[in-house]
Amino acid sequence: MNLDLALLVPECAMLLLVAVLFVQALSAGPASVAAHRWLPLGALAVTAAAVVALPAEGMLLWDAYKVDGLSQFFKLCVAGGFCIAVLNATRQPTLEEGKRADYFLFLGVSAWGLMLLASSAELVTLYLALELSSYSLYVLIPLRGRTREGAEAGVKYILFGAAATAISLYGLSYIMAAHQTTYIAALAARDWSWAASPTAVVGLSLFLCGMFYKLALFPFHFWCPDVYQGSSNETAAYVATLPKLGAVVVLVRLAAVLHPGLEITTAIAWLGVLSMTFGNLCALVQKDVKRMLGFSSVAHAGYVTVGLVSGTAEGLAAAAFYALVYVVMNLLCFWVVARVAVDGRNLVLSDLNGLHRRSPVLAFALGVGAFALVGLPPTAGFMGKLFLITAAWNHGYNWLVIALALNSAIAIYYYLSLVRHAYTEPDENTSLPAPDQSAFSLGGAVALAAATLVLGIVPSPLFEKAVQAGMALFG
Amino acid sequence: MYPDIPVLSILIFLPLVAAALLLPLRDDETVRRVSLAASLIGLAAGWPLIAFNPDAGFQFVERMTWVARWGLEYHLAVDGISILMVWLTLFTLPLCVLCSWTYIGKRVKEFHICLLLMTSACIGVFTSMDLVLFYVFWEAMLIPMYLLIAVWGGAERRYASIKFFLYTLAGSTLLLVAIVAFRIAGGTFSIPDLMQQTFGFRFQYWAFLAMALAFAIKVPMFPFHTWLPAAHVQAPSAGSVILAAVLLKMGTYGFLRFCLPLTPEASVHFAPLMIGVSVVSILYGGAVALGQTDIKKLVAYSSVAHMGFVTLGIFLFQKSGVQGALLQMLNHGIVTGALFMMIGAMYERSHSREVADNMGMGKYLPAFMFFWGLYALASFGFPGTNGFVGEVLVFVAAFQQSLTVGALIVPGALLAAAYMFRVSLRMAWGSPSTAKTWNDLNRREWAYLLLPAVLVLWIGLAPAPFLRLIDPSIDRLLADLRGRAPVKEAPLALNHADAVRHEPPAILASAAIAKEVRQ
Fold first, then answer.
1. How far is CA B122 from the centre of its chain?
2. Which of A116, A206, A459, B98 has its CA 20 to 30 A from that of A99?
3. Using a CB-CB distance cutoff of 8 angstroms, which residues of chain B are in contact with residue A376?
């Protein structure tokens, strides 16, 4: 067994962080309260470790664990996203004091699982990493005071998750039976057409269901709006973003198998179309902001498939880039939601009325986030979409690209309603507490909004990294 | 002459810098002064554009790599088709600032920031030579415009602003797909490079449709015009001015810059349809304007008709038609912009846009009615004003092309006179007069009404310098089009435009000759 720890710097750093949190969670008393004070710095250190480890490359654990450009890119995204999610959750009003260390412990384990997922190059390893990240979430979601909604969301997430996992494992058995290997590299060399091996195609389809569940792709999305609505704003911010990254990295790895024209690729493209259309249409009628963002993420899962099915390094890079942009945009929106709902309530659209008067900075940040989700220039959302379209055009799925364009038109309405309520509706509801106007709150909002704009204006450096990662997959 | 100054970038970024400077200001009066100063500096910064050489194609080129992987570039340039639009945008900003001096009372700072962002994006649209850069500016302009209507608009502002935003954004989503398709088919996003290439007819067919939808909504052409009256009526005065003067021109500019050079065969294929829709726009816009009692709505519908003349001129593929279209774009910007400013000034006095509330001003506000009369005459194309020159050129092309088209648009011109006279008469002499206590124009209003008036008469009496700026570009555009697509030559191969280029009255004569010979 080859185990070169130098290749595992980010994972080790994260594990260390988790271990400290574990000790702190066990030790009762004032020490456990302080977790949120040092944790952002710890998360920052992990991010730094991920930056250092960016050029690392190698194979570990009998080639089941692959450290390459793709995995390091995603580990950096996960570490950065974790850092923001932790910052976002430091002032969680619906979390009891005594459970803080536990909360962050599970958050950390989940992020650690996602890091392992990014490097998994073998189906069983991949499955284990996925479960590691999911199980912690099962605990996190109901942690919202002692509310019924939180419990309901937790139960839904577990039940759907368990079912999806079972289906996934069942599919895995078919793949093993048909192709006698679980290494993705070996699987990529096999013939995946229906004619050659129907068993394998059925197996892979079932296995992908588990990933689609994570990604909330139609028809595996049913948990998504309920869980966003039921869990606390801060937990929803995490659930909505990082696990999606994990799902995308797995799909990007498996995309080596998915050549354009195969039945299974076409099926995914169709799921993409259904997902974006369904998600957008449902989001149109939502009143609860988080629920709306939930349906919007169903739609965005559909957009990502556009890059996945193109079968080119640029397409995969575009999907990876879009997933990252999606994480930034959503963290931005959730940041504002969490800062406006200072008492931890669920916001409905009318709660945003007159936000520009109550907090101009948060209103502006929300505007940037909403326009980025629409895909308007000069935000990162536009660049992400442009890259997806450019990469996918003329690779056999032009109808998918046109569906994406038409869906953007549908989506405008509900994203615009965020801006509309914040800027044009009069502020009559006085029962709402004043939004958090501290330097921490405004600074975070401005930083995330700036990131969204900068990624939209100069996307090259990051996108080039993504393309290199994509190239590595194609050899 | 000025080889090293990145003029176009300065014009784009100057308003952005000014907007940033406004941020820390607190006093409304200071905000207005700084904005005015910034707009005048912007105008002055456009000075090097005087060196524009009409015969030289794309000029003031700035080219930098933006995203190397996809070949995106920061690529700016102007030619004869865009130079007038750039000037128009630069002239419009100070007028907008001046005409909102007392009109806008709330959130003054944010208002001026929106105006400055708009100007920056508009100049970007007219100077981008990279398809994606163009699209970025094209879409970026929606957000400040949306806010201008939604925050500072009239009673129905929410409905109008959402309609405007949804309509225009929905129309342009397929434009993005077309842009990407051009990149994949032609290997570049650069417009001058793509103009050298020839695409298959099937490709052109779909690309034309995708682009034409976006542009037709922006123009707006019948039946996509319904957002325009709503937006115009609800927008604040300056918003209407910038909407009418600059935004609508983006649609027709798009036809000239993209549809004709990139999809020539499809343009010719669809020309009958476009001509038909233009004629309907002219007649329908005029007829609806005739029935309005709200003066602002009337001018809004008259825009539909006037822009119909522009699209008609473009799709006739005759030199005088395109000349007329480009001049008419400029004219409509000047005249309709001025009319909207006057409606704003009137609204400040009467707080109503209804004709019945704004009657009998001739005796009490002579200066106001003088300007209104001048712009009303220019609006329906009275000889001696700029509207006449543009319209008559389009008429010439229409009669050259087909007697039917020419005959169909004559009632359009008559309708324009009818609705303009109808409302102007009541405003001047209608009784009972509502204007007894009103003050005539103040110095600020004189300032912002005088400049368009000068241009109205200048272009009306001596259009030659303006035609000289645009002519070579039009020749290249049409020669290029003829080389690639089977354009039916006008039955009258009378090269009148060259013969009479410097003699405006002769244009009139040539129109008459064209008509007579045809019959």
1. 11
2. A116
3. 139-140, 142-143, 169
Spell A454-471 as b/e; 16+ CB within 10 A means b: ebbeebbebbebbbebbb
Before B432, cis peptide (omega within 30)? yes
Which residues does chain A have with pLDDT short of 50? none
8 Å CB contact between A415 and A374:
yes
- The answer to whether the beta carbons of residues B199 and B262 sit under 8 Å apart is yes
Nearest to B150 among A389, A402, A424 (CB): A424
- For strand A65-67 and strand B59-67, is the pairing parallel, antiparallel, or unpaired? unpaired
- Which of B24, B13, B18 has the alpha carbon at shortest distance from B38? B18
The tokens for A42 are 């710890």
CB contacts under 8 A, B 150-169 vs A, are 150-151, 157-158, 161-162, 165-166, 169
Question: Roughly how many angstroms between the first and final C-alpha of chain B, as a whole number?
Answer: 50
For A109, half-sphere exposure in the C-beta direction (CA atoms, 13 angstrom radius) is 19
Please name which of B343, B362, B340 lies closest in space to residue B352, comparing C-alpha atoms. Answer: B343
Domain of A401? 5-473
Q: From CA B300, how far away is CA B60, in angstroms rounded?
A: 35
Would you call B136 and A467 a contact, using CB atoms and an 8 Å cutoff? no
What does the alpha-carbon distance between residue B72 and residue B132 come to, in Å, rounded to a whole number? 7
Phi-psi region of B380 (alpha: psi -120 to 50; beta: other; left: phi over 0): alpha
Task: Choose the weakest-confidence range: A191-200, B61-70, B232-241.
Answer: A191-200
pLDDT of residue B208: 92
DSSP A189: T
Q: Scanning the structure block, which residue is given the tokens 């942690």?
A: A143
Instruction: Report the distance separating Cα B291 and Cα A357, nearest Å.
Output: 41
Quick: pLDDT tens for B440-470: 888 888 888 888 999 999 988 888 888 888 8
CA distance B124 to B135: 10
**Is the bond leading into A219 cis (omega within 30 degrees of zero)?**
yes
Q: What is the DSSP string of B358-377?
A: S---TTT-HHHHHHHHHHHH
Distance between CA atoms of B507 and B513, rounded to whole angstroms?
Answer: 10
Q: Which of B89, B79, B165 is nearest to B120 (CA)?
A: B89
What is the percentage of chain B residues whose pLDDT exceeds 90? 18
Task: Provide the residue type at A13 as one letter.
Answer: A
Pick from A367, A402, A459: which is nearest to B177 by CB? A402
Tokens coding B69 = 């992987």
Distance CA(B443)–CA(A116), nearest Å, equals 72
Answer positive or negative: Cα dihedral of B314, B318, B319, B323.
negative
Q: Name residue, tokens 């709503």.
A: B230
Q: Give me the number of domains chain A comprises.
A: 1
Contact A424 B142 (CB under 8 A): no
